[in-house]
Design a protein that fits this description.
About 25% of the residues lie in helices and about 20% in strands. The N and C termini lie far apart (about 45 Å).
Length: about 180
Amino acid sequence: MRGYFGIGVERLSKPMNAGNLFRTAHAFGAGFVFTIDAEYSVKRARSDTSKSPDSLPWYEYESAADLTLPQGCQLVGIELLDSAIELPRFRHPLKAAYVLGPEMGSLSPELVARCAHVIKIPTSFCVNVAVAGAIVMYDRLITLGKFGERPISALPRSLAALPETADPWADNPGRRHPKRRG
């Protein structure tokens, strides 16, 4: 995948949520993880079975003002704000640091002010912090990864494996070809 990303949390109070998020970030190939005024301990976050801070850089910041990012890295807040860009319409920066807020709250106004972008997942209500992070990381992967375009329509598995030149209806004269009339 092109570029790099990091992901972090602000004022998170449940280490298990951070552990889930950081384990998922490790699996998706994050370049770093971080916390801002958050409670995190590898021992207490038993959900991070990959022990991501042993495998990738982990940065701790006391406040939003202390957050430092690599040059050219854009901070992207993930928050349910009316002004936020819906994830399906968002173009991920090649160099990004995503940040999520606390379980029972929102990103601080100080941190939102530092964000180059604020995005939201189009859901009816908030989802778990680790789930939200996983959705954003997956969206980054499918939009910046080298997967090519998705098919226009869903084909049955047996038809999807046929070469483009094959006629899947040739062996079944009783079934009407979608481009032929009659």
